[in-house]
Amino acid sequence: MGEPDDQRLSHAALFTGFFKAGIIGFGGVLPVARRMIVDERRWMTQSQFNDLFSLCQFMPGANIVNLTFAFGARHRGVTGAAAAILGLLAAPVCIVMALGSAYARYGGLPVARHALAGLAAAATGLVAGTALRIATPILTNQTNILLTAAVFALVMGLRLSLLTTMAIILPVSLFLSWRNNR
Amino acid sequence: MNILPELAVLFGRLSLLAIGGVNSTVPQIARDVVTQRHWLTPAQFAQLFAISNAAPGPNVMISTVIGAHMAGIAGGIIATMAMILPSGVLVIIVSKIWDRHRDARWRKIVQQALLPITAGLLLAAAGVLVRQADTGIAYAVMTLLCAGLAWRTKIHPLWLLGGGTLVGLLVR
Fold first, then answer.
1. FRET partner for B79 with CA separation of 20 to 30 A, picked from A34, B48, B59, B69?
2. Per the domain annotation, does A117 fall within a domain?
3. A25 close to B56: Cβ distance less than 8 angstroms
4. Could you tell me if A70 and A144 lie in one domain?
5. If phi over 0 gives left and psi between -120 and 50 gives alpha, with beta otherwise, what is residue B126?
6. Residues A102 and A148 in one domain
7. Chain A contacts of B56, Cβ < 8 Å?
8. Domain check: are A96 and A155 in the same one?
């Protein structure tokens, strides 16, 4: 990119910044990463952050992972993206694998089974609540309600694959959105 | 078939389909690893998903924890890379042209078209998890309670996950 050298972050800065966001990002890395990038290290203004984030929401994949890739690449190209993403994921990957191996070893014990059933019920509720929070502002017109219901029915009811569901719904949704924006 | 390439293909395919985030692919992951391959029981799937939520880090940790469960450290790393690399490469490419199309009409059209799909997929993810974790009335009530709190309040997710674990221990 055309930025002068002194404004480009080093690989080490990218790695350590995102490492910190990754390791303290319980229950969602995004708020932590936003605070790190905008408030603490002033790597971006809030509006620059919002603009990059809107791209990352728009693209497939985890929003924060996309943001990390794009941000790292803007500063140091492909190797910058690699430094940032390794920083973000190093600690969480190790922690989740350690938890996973504890689960494989002790998950069958009665105490662990009860704790895990409770944890799973809470995590399911968390996903449902987040889905509702995202869905409610979208479900304000008939088109969106019908499309959302159709996706839900195809995946939950007919148990179609994600690819098949997208192949059916995406053209319809794009057409309706195009007509709406004419 | 060797399990490592199979993990790479499974999660690599999902990477570019993760519209609106990784949780949109939860129904498909369940379909792949529970219904079709029988790698995990429904309860194991629900529990590994919960563990990936309880750890720090982004939602892609669901691929890490399943990969590691199936094939150790190598499996965890390969599943994670497969989940993040295709979408990551795409976002790097698109971010270079994004600014030029800031006000483009197609951008608005695509963004609007993806919103209801995201909503439908996330609701389906919740539905599929409910189906997997079907463990009786006490847990169903707790799921409802957590859903309501996560929907209507700004409570930190860790309180819900910690509270759920504690209730699980006490209810028995």
1. A34
2. no
3. yes
4. no
5. alpha
6. no
7. 22-26, 29, 91-92, 95
8. no
Q: Are residues A6 and A80 in the same domain?
A: yes
CB A160 within 8 A of CB A154: yes
Question: What backbone torsions phi and psi does residue A118 show, to the nearest 5 degrees?
Answer: -65, -45
Interface mutation vs chain B, best among A3, A47, A48, A65, most B CBs within 10 Å: A65
**Among A84, A106, A128, where does a domain finish?**
A106
Predicted structure pTM score: 0.91
Instruction: Tell me how many residue pairs between chain A and chain B have CB atoms under 8 A apart.
Output: 375
Largest CA distance in chain B: 58
DSSP 3-state assignment of A110? helix
Structural domains of chain A, count: 2
pLDDT in tens, B81-128: 999 999 999 999 998 887 777 778 888 899 899 999 999 999 999 999
Residues present in chain A in total: 182
A99 and A12 assigned to the same domain: yes
Q: Is B15 helix (H, G, I), strand (E, B) or coil?
A: helix
User: Does A111 lie at the interface with B, CB-CB under 8 angstroms?
Assistant: yes
**Tens-place pLDDT, residues A3-35:** 445 689 999 999 999 999 999 888 778 889 999
